[in-house]
Amino acid sequence: MSGNPHSTFLGVSDEESGLNSDIYNSTFGFEKIFVVSLPSRTDRRDAITLSAALSGIEVEFIDGLQGQDVPDKAIPSGPDQERMGDASIGSWRGHMNAIQEIVRRNLSSALILEDDVDWDVRIKDQLRDFALSSRALTQPLLRESDHPYADVTYPYPSEGDSYIDLGRSSPDILFTEMPPTQPPRTSPYGDNWALLWLGQCGLTFPREDGKGLIPKGRVVHMDDETVAEKRHLTTWTKPDELKAQYPDHTRVVHHAYQPLCSLGYAVTQRTARQLLHELGLKPFDRAFDLLLASFCDGGAGRGHHDCLSLQPGLFHNHLPAGPRRAESDISDHGNGYDEIAKTPNVRFSVRMNAGALLDGLPLTDQFPDLPAV
């Protein structure tokens, strides 16, 4: 399972056609890829520019800013609301600048990345698999059935209803046995998504026994060679439901529930306009990722939106060798020093393999499997 991935890197199989092949273009099938980045972090801009070039994609920087440079009158707030911390304000405003740009240019869709993310050299193949899974969950079935979608809990019921009350449950859909769905017309990822949360620090599966509007279906991709063994996987969410419920080398695509960190997410034009209204003009009272999660979950009166994600995610924070204080512009990582660079959950990391990719050398798997017994 630790074979050299050079054979698929930047390649397009003969079977890919139509919208599917758009995933292999220079923007992963979106109209643009934006990277939110402080102009002063030239180190991060150098790194992600190189990673993008090695991956055959084009990125455009959106200038972030320091929170102290955002005046109180530019921050929507409620009665008696105290000003958030400068780090949270800067993060929020940087992401809102990217969302504003999507609306201003009238882009059909865009992927927004934070400037310290890393990904696998097989990212385009991973995104193709994610797109097929997303479509299995949200596109109408090609053939008539008792329910128009493979996920019988999709679309969501009326507010206040319980899935159990409706007699609905949604068994896992195996990636190798996904039913045929109607071809998408607008995006390789499907016609009905609002937000694709592709990079996060942790999230949970939608609850089977709870009330709420989040569909419960899952597409389960077992024996995914791009996923490390469970002993290597990390998440901020406890308990780790992926490890508890599935075997090694499994990736699961599902509707996002309680995601943490906005490392990478894609939005449509319609969603960008909604976010500009909900997160840009209404009180800013929580960190940006929590506001984004409430937009997806339907919390704080924002209404549910179709947000899809996956465990493990595809974009993760790269932690370079060097002083830990340089690892984040939002939180304090202490005064220690890391001797070795690493990226959690990414096997053939682009950043960790940049030298090998440039020189045409064999690539290094950060998380090789244990030898077979």
Automatic annotation (TrEMBL):
Keyword Chloroplast: no
Domain Glycosyl transferase family, first and last residues per copy: 31-132
Keywords linked to the UniProt accession: Glycosyltransferase, Transferase
GO molecular function, one term: transferase activity
Pfam families in the record: Glyco_transf_25
Entries under InterPro entries matching the protein: Collagen_mod_GT25, Glyco_trans_25
Family: Belongs to the glycosyltransferase 25 family.
Protein name, per record: Glycosyl transferase family 25 domain-containing protein
